[in-house]
Amino acid sequence: MLVIVILIGVIVVKTVLDVLGYINENLSAGINFLIILLILAFLWYAVANA
Q: What b/e readout covers 5-27, taking b as 16+ CB neighbours within 10 angstroms?
């Protein structure tokens, strides 16, 4: 179960980083950082409740 969560997390983070890289010209670094923090918080919550 933990392996599946980690695998999904890696895929999600990579996808989001690709998207942020694509639209980075329209977002400030602060917004990018906030989005990454939200994703990490969600992944931590998912792992804690797995």
A: eeeebeeeeeeeeeeeeeeeeee
